[in-house]
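Q: I'm writing a short methods note and want an example of a predicted protein-small molecule complex. Could you take the sequence and the SMILES for pyridoxal-5'-phosphate and return the bound structure as tokens? Please keep the output block clean; save any remarks for afterwards.
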Amino acid sequence: MTPAAYAVVDTEALRHNLAVVRRSAPGSKVMAVIKANGYGHGLLRVAQALREADAFAVARVPEGIALREAGFIQRIAVLQGFIDDAELAAHVRYGLEPVIYSFGQIYRLERAPLAQPLLPWLKLDSGMNRLGVSKDEFPICLRHLQRCPWVRQPVGLMSHLSRADIPADTVTTEQIALFRQTIAYLEGEASFANSAGILAWPDTHADWVRPGIMLYGVSPFAGRSGEQEGLKPVMTLRSRLIAAKWINKGESVGYGGDWIAPRETRLGTASIGYGDGYPRHLANGTPVLIRGQRASLVGRVSMDMISLDLTDCPDARVGDAITLWGEGLPVEEIAGYANTIPYTLLCNLTQRVRILEPGESF
Ligand SMILES: *Cc1c(COP(=O)(O)O)cnc(C)c1O
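A: Understood, no commentary inside the block.
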């Protein structure tokens, strides 16, 4: 029995994309960002494929613990660090490197001796106004960390870009200047660039780059595809056709009858829906691939099913595989039909979507 909806994750493509990162930022070490279940591709599968990366970055403590429990011994940065004693203790116990962005974290760290030294990354808010201490607070925070006997030295120096996907943006130029100025003459290793920084802003590369989306074969730039950056798509989302029939011109399809057949239509039903993470707000006309040909989504996406106009794909048969995005159908293009960015499509696959490697049996 084959699963109705499954995602094929091409681990070879992951490795290819890591090589593109290294070519794009030849002087930097690579911290592979594998938060949110490896951008929906499966945390451990992605970590295994990218084990040659110099370090991993995750968003939250449980993601770091999962990596350790699976036996990964690489350095792991936790981008949201700790906010209570339990999370601090987990950093120590599992050898995780917290990002520090508040005095509260520093006081917590100073309060009690740790069983083992901890290596933190101090984060500067260089303009995004999300996480990070201000440029004025930065030297004070750093001094606290330098004086703390159970903090390993030198502390890492981090910041994050907010608009690097916009070409020649002056805010990015200002962020670069501020980060540079703040960390000038400091000893620690610096990390700044996300995927957009890696590809478009060489001045942001520093000691460590932090690629996320580009590892998964997706361009961080609106209107560009991963292929144009030399990347290979990693995830292909597939389903299959479970029914097909002809309907008359004027008949309506799906909940609310939103789509009305403009002609006699061969209508297909495929087994995938928003319960799998295929977005409900995808527009009529969103392409899918069947037997290498494009067919289009018609009517509303249901929880477990979608309807397709197969009139122009006369060879399509019940049981055929359908590609929703990935190989031959860039996820960037589908994101446009959903009025969102590819990141959300990849991350939002639900538990029931099986993740397989090419050639892996069901
Ligand atoms: C998610 C994230 C990244 C990776 O961003 P991409 O745009 O996916 O390359 C890097 N740094 C931080 C702090 C992040 O939160």
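A: Remarks, as requested: Residues 146 and 153 are 7 Å apart (CA to CA). The pocket of pyridoxal-5'-phosphate is lined by residues 33, 35, 79, 160, 194-195, 210-213, 220 (CB under 6 Å).
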